């Protein structure tokens, strides 16, 4: 059972996290990689690395045979699955064990039991664990509808074979359930290889509270307190913290005792997490168990001082836990922000692109594999980095993370950093009152969530695209005269013209929309300096430092001011948009890069405005595209299986 060489069957930041923990224990490490990841950080940092596949890249990390061959090639005696991919695949764990290797995780039969939500609920109900009212093991749609009415709407559909929000759909009535069923099954099948669903009563205005557990093979089972993961979008966590603002010491003890009892009932070994819904009355209900390391494990590590990955590796080698329940102490407060490649202003649509500049914020723990030049593709999860802060108080954590969103930066790919900064500054979050429905009730276009480009940002973009050289005073403009720019970050056209005046100074004129529309703002640039990807500008006596990066090919300029980042393009026209009506035809374009899952219409079909015409998938998210207006499909430009980029024409609808 003892091993000295560990293969990490994963990629990105979690692979780096496991490699570093293994190194601290004196273990050799082996990385695996797809062709797309050949030069990635986790490959460079491991002692050895083995190629396991080409495109599609995501499938490479699910290639069990290739991973086992990599173990044989390198002499690895153990496999750590990280999270995602094969981490909760019982057949993989069984195959590793049958090859005489150590799987860093629970036994295959426990993974199989907890990996099926229906069987897991039944097993834990027998152990006296409170569960959400629902139904499982039903495949007939009519019977599911009848059970939903008996339970009482609203209800949730969930993928029985997995979690993470994939396959999850909320239904308010019979019609909503009928519409949600095929979408939930399709997403579940694509994500987990099974379209089995379970039905649960939707407990609205609940907190998402999870208990971290750690167990060894000698019968010791402990809990390490709770994490609150209530701030979510599309059932995906965005902010996690410990301790929970809603959990008292007495409730923590009760929930922890239930979690330990559940582990003992199923013979659990290793690190794991039991997830609960906590309602307004203080009652809690088991949702699912994650038989692996959680994305947010670092939050627990910061408050307890216990390295969960190192203890996973120790337990896998047969070591007993070196501490008891009474030895586990939580100190201070910890909070994590998930930095994702997505656009909150457009419904959190996944984003792709090339990282032009990544700046890691100082003073806190950052788990990431980001670096300049990294290509963000639609093949993997949208999470790019995790910002983790510890403080004596919750307020201190919030201050540190808010500052980190400004001090760090990501240019070249749209991210949710600005949104995260606004989220933790929202009064409801600061008061600790956020539930899982918080974001659903927010208007992402409101003043709280959106940031208009500042005058400094407009001036920086104008100078960058005008070819203003680095260093020195604001003179020697590469192309004296006017430069027209289009701020494409929020769909609102802006026309900017920068001109060098007779005295050598620079004057920026800015319009929202056409030159003929509205008043022109005149912005005098008093002083400007450019150095190492930053631009310092003095406007009206105020000096601010902004980050600037130019995008090759498109000629776009990315500008960061505080936690906000905008992408500016040279304007070509400011009238209608190509994806709006042109005459009597409507051209539908892809709102995100990804793969076409299905095309539900043919040329000549009549469609209604709300009718789904095709489904896109990117970064584990499926999006149904509607016709947008009644008409006739005049020209299909894509087929199922096609990869499309943002803005690509999908079809034309004749009105």
Task: Describe the protein's architecture and organization.
Among the domains are: 5-104, Rossmann fold (3-Layer(aba) Sandwich), CATH 3.40.50.20; 133-201, ATP-grasp fold, A domain (Dna Ligase, domain 1, 2-Layer Sandwich), CATH 3.30.1490; 455-570; 581-654, Beta Barrel (OB fold (Dihydrolipoamide Acetyltransferase, E2P)), CATH 2.40.50.100. Helices cover 25% and strands 33% of the residues. The chain has 16 helices and 40 strands. A hairpin with a 2-residue loop joins strand 30 (557-561) and strand 31. It starts with a strand and ends with a strand.
User: Treating each run of at least 4 consecutive H or I residues as one helix, how many helices?
Assistant: 16
The backbone outline, from C-alpha atoms, is globular
Largest sheet: 8 strands, antiparallel
Q: State mean pLDDT (0 to 100 scale).
A: 89
Give me the count of strands.
40
Structure at a glance:
This protein is of the alpha+beta class. 25% of the residues lie in helices and 33% in strands. Among the domains are: 100 residues, Rossmann fold, CATH 3.40.50; 69 residues, Dna Ligase, domain 1 (2-Layer Sandwich), CATH 3.30.1490; 116 residues; 74 residues, OB fold (Dihydrolipoamide Acetyltransferase, E2P).
Layout: helices, strands, pairs:
Layout: E1 5-8, H1 12-24, E2 28-34, H2 41-45, E3 48-53, H3 57-60, H4 64-74, E4 78-80, H5 90-98, E5 102-103, H6 108-115, H7 117-126, E6 134-135, H8 141-151, E7 155-159, E8 169-171, H9 174-192, E9 197-201, E10 207-215, E11 221-233, E12 236-242, H10 249-266, E13 270-278, E14 284-290, H11 297-304, H12 308-316, E15 333-340, E16 342-343, E17 349-350, E18 353-354, E19 357-359, E20 365-368, E21 375-376, E22 383-391, H13 394-407, E23 409-411, H14 417-424, H15 427-430, H16 455-465, E24 485-487, E25 494-500, E26 506-512, E27 521-531, E28 534-539, E29 542-550, E30 557-561, E31 564-570, E32 581-582, E33 585-589, E34 594-599, E35 606-607, E36 612-618, E37 621-626, E38 631-636, E39 643-644, E40 649-654
Parallel strand pairs: 1-2, 1-4, 2-3, 4-5
Antiparallel strand pairs: 6-9, 7-8, 7-9, 10-11, 10-13, 11-12, 12-15, 13-14, 15-22, 16-17, 18-21, 19-23, 20-22, 24-31, 25-26, 26-27, 27-28, 28-29, 29-30, 30-31, 32-33, 33-40, 34-36, 34-39, 35-38, 36-37, 38-40
Helix pairs in contact: 5-6, 8-9, 13-14
